[in-house]
Amino acid sequence: MATLLRVVPIITFLILFPFAAFAQPESAPAWAVGLHSRVRLISGGVNDTGEALAGIEIALDPGFKTYWRTPGESGLPPRFDWSGSENVADVEIRWPAPSLFEDAGGVAYGYSHDIILPVVVKASQPGKPLKLALTVDYGICKDICIPARAELAATLSGAEQRAVIEQALAKVPNSQPLGAPGEVSLVSIEPKSGSQAAFSVLARAPAGSQPVLFAEGPENWYFSTSKTDDPSRFIVTIEEKPQNATGPTTLRLTLVAGERAVETEVSLDEILKPR
């Protein structure tokens, strides 16, 4: 079955379902409790250069899931607002490898278990207190998707949660070039015979690992991935793109094989052929 990457406009869900809104003032417990989920910010400490490790921890009720950075055709894209933070120059979320879900609503990419999203934070002025303030909008889903919101705050001083954040970092796909050696890698990509909008992708993965491929593009570009009779080969198709759009553009491919995952970027040229 083809998997279509289509971001469902969040406003549709705002009309159909009210927000599960909750807040965490500084005096409240660490968890912000919402509908079928809890969320908190955890600290991994700050090093001498002013770079800190943090984590967005989401705990889910049994049977529920939440979404990856690209949620698939039936999911809700998460949104993060760090504007209330203090002494913060840059915030980068690192995404552990997702799973693929298929149900009556379509195909979704995300997590069906408690998840920590590692966050790397750079201070504007190293040596001074670094405070995070986050408003996060995310989706919770079992049979239907429900938008949720959490307002969180944390001072990144202690390193008490560093070990669990580093464990989550170990699940983030390794970035590597096309054709890189290794047991898990993307070997090649080439135009699919007879199609001007599809590519054949050859992957390498351990036998029996049932690899899954996720394809992402720029905003308003939607890709699908489908398997072939060869378990090491996938077809990636451009399903939609901005009107009159041409290359160059970047196609990001994430290959997940069991507990291992890699991420490779491929440039599509002016006529949308890989190079």
Automatic annotation (TrEMBL):
Signal peptide (residue range): 1-23
A family per Pfam: DsbD_N
InterPro entries the UniProt entry points to: DsbDN (IPR028250)
Keyword terms, alphabetized: Signal
Thiol:disulfide interchange protein DsbD N-terminal domain sequence ranges: 51-155
Superkingdom of the organism of origin: Bacteria
Protein name: Thiol:disulfide interchange protein DsbD N-terminal domain-containing protein
Species whose genome carries this gene: Microvirga terricola
